[in-house]
Structures are given as structure tokens and as C-alpha cells.
Amino acid sequence: MTDWTDSTLTTWGRSRYARSAVIAPDSEAGLLEAVRGSHARGAITYGGGRCYGDAALDDGGQTILTRNLNRILSFDSVSGETVCEAGVDFAALLKRFLPEGFCFPVSAATASVTVGGAFANDIHSKNHCAVGSFGHHVQWIDLMLASGDVVRASRNENADIFQASLGGIGLTGTVLRVCFRMLRVPSGAADATYQRIANVDDMFDTIEAARSTHDFIFGWVDAMARGDKMGRGVLELGRYAPDEDGVAPPPPIKPIRIQPPSAFLHPIVLKAITNRRFNAVPPEGQSARVGLGPFFFALDSMPGFNRIYGRRGFYSIHTGFPRETQRDGIRKVMEALTAVRAGSFAAVIKPMRGPGDGLLSFPMDGMAYAIDLPRRSGVEELHRNIERIVLDHGGRLYVAKDALMQADSFAQMFPKLDAFREILAKIDPDARFQSDMSRRLKIHPEAARH
Ligand SMILES: Cc1cc2nc3c(=O)[nH]c(=O)nc-3n(C[C@H](O)[C@H](O)[C@H](O)COP(=O)(O)OP(=O)(O)OC[C@H]3O[C@@H](n4cnc5c(N)ncnc54)[C@H](O)[C@@H]3O)c2cc1C
Q: Which of 227, 273, 394, 424 has the maximum number of C-beta atoms within 10 A of its C-beta?
């Protein structure tokens, strides 16, 4: 096993950095050694680093990288049951299993997410209405606790640890192995239609009508549109394709290496870009047969996309609202954004069909709306306004994207937090696993008392 080395780590949003002692074990024995090395500021596990904020960072502490725990251990070609180490990423899953007719059931919009990271945030995708979130497909995990013991946790065995670890942002321990079911797919492609959406009401009506008819539902929202056009965008509806005939070639890859000057983020420039994107879809709509790689991992067609907001990085505000309040809540969020002319390339909307099985899982029966915003003056105040709107509508913010939420808001948004704390008190009373996020959100039982 290699030694601890000092390193500076960041995550996708590049708004948060941590100086930390880092280690990348390649075996269970190596992980045990890492977990046993004690440190006052604890340790956190780091997978692909594709969370946006501070969930995988531990400034002044220790970080356990899972990149060398990357073996696929078994696969049942009848049931799709797969066992792999937690550092396996979604690119590896697609490469290995698509030729055998299987695909992951749920993914993020980038292939660099690891299976451990997908579990630790119980990720949801544009097919949430059809298949739920990642945790719904997980049979069991092997988790190394703070004590160094490895426990198997499932819905039947150590069920409390399973529920706490699913969406538990790495605070219950390091997930070593995950057993989940890959999905048999008819081909390596999806049939997608793209239609223009006139405004926020049109967006909601069209999504609601598609909830039970399509496998995939995903709206890109023109965050620069105001007034009658607020909430306009392009809605993608998709199904798995019966075959791969006529698959559209993936878009050319142009890595973004530069960090554009702030003038590039001027509202006039952003508006020109979002107009272009809206108008790229003809008024009558269009359809395409797309390979599953580009279909799932649209953002990977622009490597370095996270540099586009400049040197100071960016924030994502990823909201979720229950069905009863989703329309009013998301409308108010859009109004708050347009009132201050907050500029962004990326705002997206996705329906969700119900809760995840984790105590801190984000999904619910309702709608998710997320926007990326450059980190500049005024954005923190805007975040506070949106946090208030979300609370007033019984919604929540997604910790995978978060860097700014306040601890008392978090406690209100996640009513099972006390149950989570009870389990932490039992399995990790000294808070061996902690992160910048867990301290900011006062997640540990001791921190909650101050
Ligand atoms: C371009 C892009 C698109 C995205 N799209 C979506 C999306 O569509 N839906 C969605 O839900 N999310 C999405 N995300 C967020 C992403 O899926 C989550 O943040 C995911 O957790 C990142 O996984 P990771 O392997 O990079 O984990 P990291 O970012 O390294 O860590 C995230 C959390 O998981 C914990 N963790 C990681 N590995 C382990 C382990 N082995 N054991 C215990 N804890 C662990 C970390 O401690 C941390 O708390 C997107 C992110 C990006 C950058």
C-alpha cells in the first residue's frame, strides 16, 4: 500500500478546495490500514470527485480515494446481478456490459461517477419515473466501518446501516463492494424526441402527460428567458430503442481548456447562447436514435465543461419539490433567478416518482429543478432566497450538488436526520468519518448540540 501524501483536492464545482492527507488503497487490507490511521479531523471517502461542493472534502483531515478499488468481481448474465468494487465508474460498466446486452439502471449525466459515489448520494436520473433511484437496484453493500470491521448491509441484514449509508454521503464508512442489478436492454441505443416548450406551464403540462408513457424525461430550461417565456426550453422524451439501426454519430469532442474571462458570462452573451440552443430544435420538433453513451452522458461530450464559469468556479442549486407544491415552488425559484438576471447555461427539470430508500435520499414524488450559477457576488444571497422558497414549499436541496445550504435548513428538509444521527452514534461515536459538508451541516450528533 502507498503512503499518505499531502494533496489539494476539489470537486466538480471548483468552488471548494481541501488540503488533505490522501491515500489510494487497492485492497481491503490497505483500506483497513487507512481507516485505522486516526486523525482529529477524521477522514472521508472520495470517488470520482463529481459531487459539486464539499461532500467529498475534508480540509485538514484525511481522504481515502477509491480509484484503485476498481474491479468488477462477478456478473450473472441471466439476472444481471453484478458485484463490483466501489471505485468502478459508469464508463467501465457501460464498456464491459453493453456488449452483453446490459446497462446500468440509473446513472448521472457523466460517466466518471463511481458506483460507491452513486450509492452514497442515491443518485437519480432522467428515468426516475420508470426505475427509481440507484439504491432501488442495490442488493447489498460491504461497508468498512470506523472500527475497521466490514459489515454486509442490505434491506434484510444490518438494514439500519444500509438505509443510513444509501445517500449517507460517506459518513457511515467506506463502501468497499456493491451488489446491484444491471438492466437488460434491447439495444445500445435510445429513441429520443426533442420538442420546444413555450414556458413553465407548458413544461409542467407536457412532463406530466409523459410521466407514465416514456422511460426518459428530461427538460433543458432556458434560464435567460423571462416574462411570458420564463421556463421555456427543450424537452427530451426517450425510450430504449429496439435496435441500433441509424444511430446518430456522437457529437465531436472539443475539450474546454481555457477559463473564459468574466465578460463571457455577461447576460447578453449567455442569452445569445441559450437562444441558439433553443432554436437548434425546429418548431415542429425532431427525433434521433442515440447511442446510450452519449444519451446518458451528454455532459461528457464537453470535457472541461466545469471551467466555463471561470476561475472562481460555480455553484449548483438542485431543488426538489413535492407534487402538491412543485408548480408554484419551481415558478417562484425561476422568478427569483430572473429577477436578479442570474445567468446560466444549464438549468434542467426532471420528474421524480417517489422517495429513495435511504434516510437522507433526495428523491420524492415530485419534480427536480437544478441550475448552475457562476460563483460571483450576490449568488450566496440568491441561494438563501431559494433555500427559503424550497423550505416554504416542503421541498429539499440535493447535497450532491450543494456547497451553501445552512444546517438548520438541512435538518428541516431531511426529517429522518435524527434517525441517521442515532446510527452514526452507534457505529462511529468518535466521528472518524467526517467531511467539510458534515461539519457545515452539523450532521454529527455532537455538532447538532452546539
Ligand atoms: C456533470 C455531472 C452530472 C451529474 N448528473 C447527476 C444526475 O443526473 N443525477 C444525480 O443524482 N447526480 C448527478 N451528478 C452528481 C453525482 O452523481 C454525485 O455527486 C455522485 O455522488 C458523484 O459520485 P463520485 O464517485 O464522483 O463521488 P464523489 O464526488 O467523490 O463523492 C460524493 C459523495 O460520495 C461519497 N463516497 C464516494 N465513494 C464512496 C464510497 N466508496 N464509500 C462511501 N462513500 C463514498 C463521498 O464521501 C461523498 O460524500 C452529476 C455530477 C456531474 C459532475
A: 424
In sequence order, which residues have a C-beta less than 8 Å from that of residue 78 and are 6 or more positions away? none
Instruction: Tell me how far the alpha carbon of residue 77 lies from the centroid of ligand 1, in angstroms.
Output: 27
Question: What is residue 247's DSSP assignment?
Answer: P
Measured CA to CA, the distance from residue 437 to residue 423 in angstroms comes to 18
CB 11 near ligand 1, within 6 Å: yes
**Together in a domain, 114 and 227:** no
CB atoms within 10 A of CB 204: 20
Place of cell 463502501: 175
Residue 143 vs residues 28, 31, 134, 162, 165: alpha-carbon distances, Å: 10, 11, 17, 9, 9
CA separation for the pair 390, 402 (Å, rounded): 14
Ligand 1 midpoint to CA 170 (Å): 10
Give φ, ψ of 40 to 5 degrees: -60, -35
d(CA 435, CA 417): 16
Contact between 237 and 295 (Cβ < 8 Å): no
Q: Each residue of 204-233: pLDDT tens digit?
A: 999 999 998 999 999 999 999 999 999 999
Question: What span, in angstroms and rounded, lies between the C-alpha atoms of 179 and 72?
Answer: 10
**Cα 282 to middle of ligand 1, angstroms:** 35
Question: Cα torsion for 395, 313, 268, 386, to the nearest 10°?
Answer: 20
The pLDDT assigned to 221 comes to 96
- Domain at 308, CATH number: 3.40.462.10
Do 372 and 254 lie in a common domain? yes
* Nearest ligand 1 atom to alpha carbon 176: 41
Using the mean position of ligand 1's atoms as its centre, give its distance from the Cα of residue 87 in Å. 11
Neighbours of 421 (CB within 10 A): 21
Are 180 and 239 in a shared domain? no
Q: What residue owns the CA closest to ligand 1's atom 18?
A: 51
Residue of 15, 60, 25, 67 lying closest to 46 (CA atoms): 67
pLDDT tens for 216-275 read: 999 999 999 999 999 999 999 999 999 999 997 766 555 555 566 666 677 888 888 888
Q: Low-confidence residues of the chain, pLDDT below 70?
A: 1-2, 38, 250-264, 447-450
109 and 222 housed in the same domain = no
pLDDT of residue 269: 82
